[in-house]
Amino acid sequence: MERVLVVDANARLKGRRLTTLDVIGSGPRIVTALLNYYGFDAELYPYERVIGDRDILNRFDVLAVSFMISDVKAVEKLINLWRKDRGKEGLVVLGGPGTLSVKALKLLDFDIAFLGEVEQVFNEFFAIRRYRSFKEIFEELQPQGQVPRGVAVKKKDMLLDGGVAPWAPRELLFKVIPDINGVKMYPFYWACRVYVEIVRGCSNFKRPLTTANGRSCNSCGLCLSQRLADRLRCPVGIPPGCGYCSVPLIHGYPKSRDRHSIVEEVRRLLDIGVTRIVLSAPDFLDYGRDLKTEEPLTDPCNPPPNIDAIEKLLKDLTSLENVVDGKASILVENVKACLVDDYVAEVLGRYLKGTAIYIGLESCSDKLLEAIGRPNTCRDVLEAIKLLSKHGIKPYVYLMHGLPLEKTDDIITTLNTIPMLQQLGVERIILYKFRPLPRTAFSKAKRRHDEEYLKFVELLKNRVKEFNEQMKQKLLNRIMDVIIASEYPRNRRYLVSYPLHHGPVVLIRASKRFIGCVARVRIVDVISDRMVMGTILYIKYRIVNPTTSL
Ligand code: SF4
User: Distance from the CA of 244 to the center of ligand 1, in angstroms?
Assistant: First the structure.
């Protein structure tokens, strides 16, 4: 039986995570469970555990790394370490969003890479062709031969790329409960947000009006057709979805996971001490919506959400013992504005009151939103924010700058709308810089250099920073429950803690024996637009003992 070391290198950049240290994603856990299902002996480790421990590497036959494009340097270091002792013995397998970059594949010293979804490719290899090991696959894939879709192979420095994998059909998705044991390998996993996948794929099959390599929409109307299957294809070859995003292209339209499987995974995670569960989906409100249509769900706004399915799921999850006792929280990742109405917001508020929900706004210019393929207008998003706030949800909003079609006027419109976001109850704005992702409509977009435009980008950055700092000021004197996770690496007299329900990182000056505890704190100062200072009122209870937590 081949022993496979699955390493989560996502967001490790050059070898260290700089932000969102408290996130455990679902992808590497899914792959680990699938490999075990197909007869491998696979174990999951986070990057930082492996890079510091050669003994772990030596226990395995195959190194399988999941990474994002930004993590190439970290992956390179890991592969070098792996190859050092064993040379070409011991295969290197790559997966995750990073493999979509041909540049990354050319640079990295790997043997087999999986591009896009693995479910159908694994089924083909391990169930239909009955391969028992990656070694067998590698030996059969010849440089002069055909490489299956979804696979790339490197032999004698020649790269053979079979292209992105086909979208996995529903019957091959969610066959296994994602790995649970590996979660315990992450530092302070009991304080982390653990992502649980509930929907795969995105329902926005609208497209941008132009791509960055010169393709333009001819207004054929197919991607807005009433017949949902028509929307799958664009005659001029513009990839589906927002121009900057690869989700519809790589994962297709939404497919919802069975409720019982989700609840079982969450139950197992809570049993090992996880305290924060994030229900992960490109749009939470797509959950069960695909079951309302016979055709592929390629319309982001119609039919309306499947409230029955959503309510059953939330009811089951919020009835789990640790959630009822207030020792664990259920959080939702993203929603699309056009699916939020008063009733939907009321249902979300009923089960998720006091938690944050992220909404993609990206820009307040409707002209730009239309041009990049967004499914909503700015007004749709403002209305959704209003409704969610009214029902006790804390809306967090995404904005983006640097988009290829963005003009100075578009930024001015956004700047002018920010005061309204404040009035409507937005708690935080997350401003992203656009980065071209491979195989998307905007993959060939150039960096913006025009001075006037960049001046307004700076204004936007400053305004968002100011907004977030002002919102943090509103937290002063607020009392909240936090999980004390670790020492603060920049100043070891302080500890880092995370709010159980929602809110910024809270620094606390206290003894490190409190690591592993849930404490009630009062917010006493604002440190930055991302961080506040708290003081412990009292320790509520301990989650893990000090030796486990350090
Ligand atoms: S399918 Fe393509 S060409 Fe037709 S309207 Fe949509 S983006 Fe334009």
Answer: 16
Q: Which of 205, 206, 223 to mutate to test the pocket of ligand 1 (most atoms within 8 A of CB)?
A: 223
Q: What is the mean pLDDT of the chain?
A: 94
Ligand 1, atom 6: nearest CA belongs to which residue?
223
DSSP string, 377-409: -HHHHHHHHHHHHHTT-EEEEEEEE--TT--HH
Q: What is the pLDDT of residues 46-61, one digit of tens each?
A: 999 999 788 999 999 9
What is the C-alpha to C-alpha distance for residues 63 and 5, in angstroms, rounded to an integer? Answer: 5
**Residue pair 527/507 in contact by the 8 Å Cβ criterion:** yes
Q: Residue 550 has what pLDDT?
A: 43
pLDDT, position 321: 96
pLDDT of 212 reads 77
Ligand 1 center to 345 CA (angstroms): 32
Say how many Å lie between the CA of residue 218 and the centre of ligand 1.
6
Q: Does ligand 1 lie within 6 Å of residue 371's CB atom?
A: no
The confidence score (pLDDT) of residue 549 equals 45
Residues of the chain short of pLDDT 70, as ranges, are 143-144, 546-550
Backbone angles phi, psi at 416, to 5 degrees: -70, -20
Pocket test for ligand 1, best of 204, 224, 238 (most atoms within 8 A of CB): 238
Nearest residue by C-alpha to atom 2 in ligand 1: 234
Ligand 1 mean position, distance from CA 162 (Å)? 27
Query: What domains are there in the chain, each with its CATH number?
Result: 3-168 (3.40.50), 188-473 (3.80.30.20), 479-549 (2.40.50.700)
Nearest CA, atom 4, ligand 1:
220
Q: Report the pLDDT value the prediction gives residue 85, as an integer from 0 to 100.
A: 78
For the chain, the 3-state helix, strand and coil shares in percent, each to the nearest 5, are 40, 20, 40
pLDDT at 143: 64
Angle value at C-alpha 82, between 79 and 84, nearest 5 degrees = 105
